[in-house]
Write a structure and sequence with these properties.
alpha/beta, six-stranded mixed beta sheet, binds magnesium ion
């Protein structure tokens, strides 16, 4: 599978974020807990270098709990602050504390001059990671537009939490050059790339391999089909089990692919992390 992914407007979004950086005291970087490595962009880290950061492993409800803990601990040590989060459900306390911890030195500096500082927090990350949902959770209201597809947030938007805390929502960012097709496939599998730019059948075949590696037995348990053999045989078996057949009795692979992607993304195959902490070379 060959993924090409950098739409023209992303360079503009990156520029818009860069223009606002002077105002920003803390950067909340939203990564997807199902792919905590591939969704943490080096390009974004470079853009934000020097800022106090909080890494949020969002959508933790869809990821393997143990893996999320390992990755959160690791990022906490590496970047100072990291929390796992479910923007649909979790109370905001732990994340707010992490933001306040990250902001503390700035607040302190201003306090010494007798000034009460408004802390400005950028929320950034790959498309569809849940940036707007995180903001809404922190705000306790639907201030930012959310949606279950990438590219929902189009421009920068300030959301005021209180007199001394403001959040900046931003459009999802990818980076110009794909370093690894493997990472790109994971980013695609979790739903951070637009459907229109993907060969979904090829992606579903790649996802079958990822799933067999990340959680053996998950495919068999969900679809009642053998998960050994070539990926296309597994997809075919899924189609047959679900009755996705074309007129001549052939498996409707495109339909099966779409369902598999949707069900994985919706957590129907269980809580799965595609990047095992133990496997990573650090
Ligand atoms: N299960 C689950 N779903 C989540 C979580 N956070 C966000 N979502 C859902 O994921 C989808 C994407 O959320 P958004 O907040 O729009 O994501 P975003 O990062 O702002 O996306 P863009 O603006 O398109 O870059 C929405 O359907 C959210 O309801 C989470 O922690 N768990
Ligand atoms: Mg958004």
């Amino acid at each position: 599978m060959d993924i090409q992914w950098y739409p023209g407007h992303m360079a503009k979004s990156r520029r818009q974020i860069a223009e606002k950086l002077k105002l920003i005291n803390v950067a909340v970087i939203a990564v997807d807990a199902r792919a905590p490595k591939s969704t943490l962009s080096d390009d974004l880290l470079t853009l934000l270098s020097g800022k106090a950061c909080v890494i949020v492993l969002n959508k933790s409800d869809l990821a393997d709990e143990r893996q999320t803990k390992l990755w959160t601990d690791y990022y906490g040590k590496k970047f100072g602050n990291a929390v796992s989060f479910n923007a649909m459900r979790d109370p905001k306390g732990a994340l707010l504390s992490a933001v306040n911890r990250a902001a503390a030195p700035v607040i302190e500096r201003y306090a010494q001059k007798g000034v009460k500082k408004t802390v400005r927090v950028l929320v950034a990350g790959v498309p569809n990671a849940g940036k707007s949902a995180i903001i809404n959770r922190l705000a306790g209201r639907r201030s930012a537009k959310e949606g279950d597809k990438p590219g929902v947030t189009r421009g920068l938007q300030w959301v005021k939490l209180s007199d001394n805390l403001e959040l900046l929502d931003s459009p999802g960012l990818l980076w110009p050059k794909i370093e690894s097709q493997e990472a790109a496939a994971k980013i695609a599998a979790i739903g951070s790339l637009k459907r229109e730019i993907l060969d979904e059948t090829a992606l579903a075949l790649a996802l079958i391999d990822m799933l067999r590696d990340a959680k053996p037995g998950a495919l068999a348990a969900r679809y009642g089909a053998a998960e050994e053999g070539a990926a296309h045989e597994v997809l075919e078996a899924v189609c047959r089990k679900r009755g996705f057949l074309l007129r001549q009795g052939e498996a409707d692979l495109d339909r099966g692919a779409r369902i598999l992607l949707d069900e994985f993304r919706g957590g129907r195959l269980g809580r799965i992390t595609l990047e095992r902490f133990e496997d990573d070379e650090r």
